[in-house]
Amino acid sequence: MLRRRRDLLLAAGALAVPFAGAAIAAEDLWARLRRGNAVLLMRHAATEPGLGDPQGYRLDDCRTQRNLSDAGRADARRVGERLARERVVISRVYSSPWCRCRDTASLAFGRFEDWDALSSVFDFPEREPDYTERVKKRIASFDRRSPKGNVAMVTHNVNVAALTRESVAPAEIVVVEAQGCCGLRTLGRLLLTS
User: Fold this and answer.
1) Spatial contact of 46 and 170, defined as CB atoms under 8 Å apart
2) What element of type H or E holds 102?
3) CB contact set of 33 (below 8 Å; sequence gap of 6+)
4) Tens-place pLDDT, residues 84-112
5) Which of 59, 84, 90, 132 is 20 to 30 A away from residue 32, measured at CA?
6) Element (H or E) spanning 184, and its range?
7) What is the CB-side half-sphere exposure of residue 149 using CA atoms within 13 A?
């Protein structure tokens, strides 16, 4: 189990290419988000110390998982406050069923829908290809012709890395849009917690 976790972390690190700057300048990224129809892939906020989840954790019992720290809860609130100040409309929020993601989504956006395709692949790397394809297909299905706000997806670093080839900090957001049927184009990154 520990070897699988180590291998997955190394793979996520290998996927994380240096970010040479936003594909869109910061001011233009905010304008793009105000227009809508972008997807915000957000890593859950900071947690209590640890790596992965304790052995024997259960998704139906938050007490058995690694959860948000006080700083993480404050950061999640800050993200939501900043997006609201910037007049970024979030029309739909999906979350991994892990408590740290659900709590991040709730504190940042006030609501969420669980979606298993955003589940952590940390302990189950064999699920990554299926989950990644499902997320890409859902992003491709969003109607780009009629702006109705943006979609937020709160998940885990390994999932964001699998989708974008970028490793992100807790509560960091990678803004993407669909490119063709199953590709993603990274528009930029937002770290709103400082």
Assistant:
1) yes
2) helix 99-109
3) 40, 83, 86, 88, 150, 175
4) 999 999 999 999 999 999 999 999 999 99
5) 132
6) strand 183-190
7) 12
DSSP, residue by residue, 106-148:
HHHHS--EE-GGGS--SS-GGGHHHHHHHHHHHHHHS-SSS--
**Separation between Cα atoms, residue 8 and residue 6, nearest integer Å:** 5
Residue-range domains of the chain with CATH = 2-16+35-190 (3.40.50.1240)
State pTM to two decimals. 0.86
- Give CA–CA dist 54/109, Å, rounded: 27
| Rounded Cα distance, 101 and 15, in Å | 22
Q: Which residue has the tokens 């291998």?
A: 7
Helix (H) or strand (E) run with residue 190 in it: strand 183-190
Q: Which residue shows structure tokens 């990274």?
A: 186
Q: How confident is the model at residue 23 (pLDDT cuts 50, 70, 90)?
A: low
Do 97 and 150 touch, CB atoms closer than 8 A? no
DSSP-assigned letters across all residues of 13-78: HHH-----S-SS-HHHHHHHHHH---EEEEE---BSS-SS--TT-BTTBGGGS--B-HHHHHHHHH
